């Protein structure tokens, strides 16, 4: 693609995957720059220089280009993560400080009473997605034990369970399908909340409505349910 800007011609080239904009001018030497914020490569070249020579020039400096592009990416990530670095994250009812580290991969680790988030791309949204994935894995690992214990006590069995990030409900039960949905946000609450919600949803396999019969089941399977329910519902998911 070529476009004319007055007497100058700017040409865009793709050299081994590197997008380069080339401007030819009445100058003696060829110059290369990597510019913020995206790390765009710009070449200023004498009018007589061929595309081939430009390609060679760029190829010979590919390491230098990468180094500088990386630096701009890191700066962008740093600006974004500053917003959430030092924030507190909840896990099983406890609050832990979040440390955000720019890294070559996306990962979350929990060590020394803090949660460390590694992100490789810019964007607070990206950070949230990585954290939610980590939360999901933790909840996913916790559910089978609680569910199996509750099913044993109650003598009912769900056919399957799934996790969903819900805005208004901690759990739901599809009685016909015998499928239980659990809110991803439960991973932030005390473990007893997960147990309460699982038992609540399993009781729906015995009683559809929230009536006296339902409450009687709750009293027998989880006597402390009123306290946990009150604690859970004091905060909207
Ligand atoms: Zn219910």
Secondary structure layout:
Blueprint: E1 2-5, E2 8-15, E3 18-25, E4 31-35, E5 40-46, H1 51-60, H2 62-81, E6 88-91, E7 94-102, E8 107-111, E9 114-119, H3 124-154, E10 160-164, E11 171-174, E12 179-183, H4 191-203, H5 212-221, H6 225-233
This protein binds zinc ion (ZN).
Zinc ion (ZN) binds next to loops.
Tell me about this structure.
About 40% of the residues lie in helices and about 30% in strands. Strand 4 and strand 5 form a beta hairpin. It has about 240 residues and is α/β, with parallel strands linked by helices. The mean pLDDT is about 85. The longest helix is centred in the middle third of the chain and has 31 residues, at about 125-155. It is elongated. It has 3 domains: about 1-75, no CATH class; about 80-130, no CATH class; about 140-235, Metalloproteases ("zincins"), catalytic domain (Zincin-like). The chain has helices at about 50-60, 60-80, 125-155, 190-205, 210-220, 225-235, and strands spanning about 1-5, 10-15, 20-25, 30-35, 40-45, 90, 95-100, 105-110, 115-120, 160-165, 170-175, 180-185. Zinc ion (ZN) binds next to loops.
């Amino acid at each position: 693609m070529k476009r004319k800007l007055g007497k100058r011609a700017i040409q865009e080239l793709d050299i081994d995957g590197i997008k380069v904009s080339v401007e030819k001018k009445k100058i003696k030497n060829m110059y290369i720059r990597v510019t913020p914020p995206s790390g765009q490569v710009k070449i200023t070249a004498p009018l007589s220089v061929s595309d081939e020579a430009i390609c060679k020039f760029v190829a010979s400096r590919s390491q230098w280009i990468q180094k500088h592009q990386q630096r701009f990416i890191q700066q962008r990530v740093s600006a974004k993560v500053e917003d959430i670095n030092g924030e507190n994250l909840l896990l099983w009812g406890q609050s832990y400080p979040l440390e955000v580290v720019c890294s070559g991969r996306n990962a979350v680790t929990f060590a020394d009473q803090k949660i460390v988030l590694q992100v490789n791309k810019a964007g607070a949204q990206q950070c949230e997605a990585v954290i939610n994935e980590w939360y999901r894995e933790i909840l996913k690992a916790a559910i089978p034990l609680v569910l199996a214990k509750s099913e044993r006590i109650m003598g009912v069995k769900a056919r399957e369970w799934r996790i969903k990030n819900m805005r208004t409900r901690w759990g739901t039960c599809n009685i016909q399908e015998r499928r239980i949905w659990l809110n991803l946000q439960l991973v932030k609450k005390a473990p007893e909340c997960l147990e309460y919600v699982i038992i609540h949803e399993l009781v729906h396999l015995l009683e559809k409505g929230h009536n006296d019969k339902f409450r009687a089941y709750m009293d027998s399977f989880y006597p402390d349910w009123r306290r946990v329910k009150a604690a859970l519902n004091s905060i909207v998911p």
